[in-house]
Amino acid sequence: MKKTAFNHLHKQLGARMSEFAGFEMPIEYSGITDEHLTVRNAVGVFDVSHMGEIWVKGPGAPDFLQYVTTNDVSRLVPGKAQYTCFPNGRGGIVDDLIIYYFEPEKYMLVVNASNIEKDFNWMKQNQKTGAELENASDRMSQLAIQGPDAEKVLRKITPVDLSAIDSFCFVTGSVAGAAEVIISRTGYTGSKGFEIYFGNEHAEKIWKAVFNAGREYGIKPIGLAARDTLRLEAGLCLYGNDIDDTTSPIEAGLGWITKFVENKDFIDREFLQNQKQQGVTRKLIGFEMIDRGIPRQHYEIVDQGGKRIGDVTSGTMSPLSRKGIGMGYVQTAYSKAGQEIFVAVRNKPLKALVVKLPFYRDI
Amino acid sequence: MNIPDNLRYTKDHEWIRLNGQIAFIGITDYAQSELGDIVFLEIETRGEQLEKGEVFGTVEAVKTVSDIFMPVAGKVIEINSKLEDQPELVNKDPYGEGWLIKIEVTEPEEVNELLDAKEYEKLISA
Predict the structure, then answer these.
(1) Same structural domain for residues A141 and A40?
(2) Exposure string (b/e) for B91-101, b if CB count within 10 Å is 16 or more?
(3) Using CB atoms, which residue from B36, B58, B65 is nearest to A31?
(4) Residue A57 belongs to a domain with what CATH number?
(5) Dist. CA B79–CA A164, nearest whole Å
(6) Do B115 and B3 form a contact (C-beta atoms < 8 A)?
(7) Does residue B126 have a pLDDT over 90?
(8) Residue B115: inside a domain, yes or no?
(9) Which of A26, A54, A70, A345 could be joined to A223 by an S-S link, Cβ 3.0–4.6 Å?
């Protein structure tokens, strides 16, 4: 099992550790609910160093990225990041990712831990413009500092003017004395905050500085379990649950990152454009339980008569509203907000309502 | 880990406290700590006569769902109604306010076949 550079610190803090995507990761520290609410109300820190970082450089880089991703890379300016996905050539999704644009011919792609190898191979296979690809995942660490107090904490340990960084923008600067830290106003929680990237050698120093700076705000370490409940409340897709090789970005509600603009020939463009024009047979929805119960991945979604109309892809009890919430695919006819649906919980149909995503967002 | 001497335990991490024909049943301190934050209990077997080992309800933590089993045969006569609004009592006080059901035991002697505190401690430290 791989370890991040923070592994020994998690263990010292008494985290419950478990395997995730080939890494030994902290799942839980003080308890999911407490961690979740810490991020919503104050500030929490996630070790997300298992995520992959792949550099794409050289004169062939822009055309390559236009071809393998769905979003419009030409709209990026240096210091801007973009959420996008790799279509798989069969109408599905290889992975979802963020592209960071540093300077002409230099991009960093941040991909899901479970897909690093798959993505890198896919990129190499579809690389026809001479772009240089470098998988830097093993030498880079990432911390997500999330919550309403995140900026106040980070401000204490960096000379960078954080207020000048807009959402989905980033700068490179020093943090806790470590030079060349990438500071990005992004996150996977629905709360305000930053993600910072740096070489593994700075991990311990930066971790300690962040926690010292955050003490007055009640900063806490947050595990992957609360990361999942936070992203679900924020209505953000999780690869492997809500999107995968069999779901199209149009079905998944990711039409907003699928750009059929001129001079952008990309994998599956024609197929996806057809889907967008002609409509899809199923759609990813968010729903809230009306009856008491908690939806879970793979539970069936049925109509009033008990006929199966879809499946739950993610579900939990929202620690914030204390209601059952979930996402899932349903036949398009049932996908409008306000539609009554039923979730089969242990063979019992429980009433739920289709709602507009997100359930919560404060960005 | 708290394992009171006056209770009996199952391999599935339920505890039972017998008082004459009547017994209280819950899940152990170890079980609640392994499950993490408990957010919902579904127990709809009130009034039912159940066999030893039969499922009497379900406990849902944020990430997991687990069935809960009858340590001995008996009739479910009461469900802890406080848990409807405060499922977290099972985490905070698993042997006290966080009890799950009260049953009328069919064969009180059956309780003696269950694990005692020492045996249960051995089980969870293995």
Answers:
(1) yes
(2) beebbeebbbb
(3) B36
(4) 3.30.1360.120
(5) 57
(6) no
(7) no
(8) no
(9) A26
Residue-wise pLDDT tens digits, A188-231: 999 999 999 999 999 999 999 999 999 999 999 999 999 999 99
Whether residue A317 and residue B63 make contact (CB cut-off 8 A), yes or no, is no
Q: A344 and A195 in one domain? A: no
Range of B96's domain?
Answer: 8-107
List CB contacts (< 8 A) between A322 and chain B: 39
Q: Are residues A168 and A282 in the same domain?
A: no
Closest CA to A221 of A89, A82, A45: A45
Cβ–Cβ of A293/B58 closer than 8 Å?
no
Q: Are A284 and A127 in contact (CB under 8 A)?
A: no
Q: With helix as H, strand as E and coil as C, how does B29-45 read?
A: HHHHHHHCCEEEEECCC
Q: Are A284 and A237 in contact, with CB atoms under 8 Å apart?
A: yes
The answer to whether the CB of A184 falls within 8 A of the CB of A100 is: yes
Q: What DSSP letter does each residue of A218-262 carry, written as one string? A: T-EE--HHHHHHHHHHTT---BTTTB-TTS-TTTTT-GGG----T
Helical H runs in chain A?
Answer: 7-12, 32-41, 61-68, 116-125, 150-155, 203-214, 224-233, 269-278
Query: Per the structure block, which two tokens stand in for A53?
Result: 């970082």
The answer to whether the beta carbons of residues A191 and A233 sit under 8 Å apart is no
How close B12 gets to chain A, by Cα (Å)? 20
Residue B60 contacts A where some CB pair is shorter than 8 Å: yes
pLDDT at B63 over 90: no
Cis geometry, peptide bond prior to residue A159 (ω within 30 degrees of 0)? no
* Residue of A316, A317, A346 with shortest CB distance to B58: A346
A243 within some domain: no
A69 and A152 belong to one structural domain: yes
Domain count across chain A: 2
Judged by DSSP in three states, A11 sits in: helix
Do A33 and B65 lie within an 8 Å CB cutoff?
Answer: no
- CATH number for the domain including A314? 2.40.30.110
A141 & A27 share domain:
yes
Task: Check whether residue A218 and residue A289 sit in a common domain.
Answer: no
Domain that holds residue A337: 255-355
Q: With pLDDT > 90 as the criterion, what percentage of chain A qualifies?
A: 99
Q: How many domains are there within chain B?
A: 1
Interval A149-202: pLDDT, tens: 999 999 999 999 999 999 999 999 999 999 999 999 999 999 999 999 999 999
Cβ neighbours, 10 Å, residue A204: 14
A292 & A145 share domain: no
Chain B contact set for A293 (CB, 8 A): 40, 42
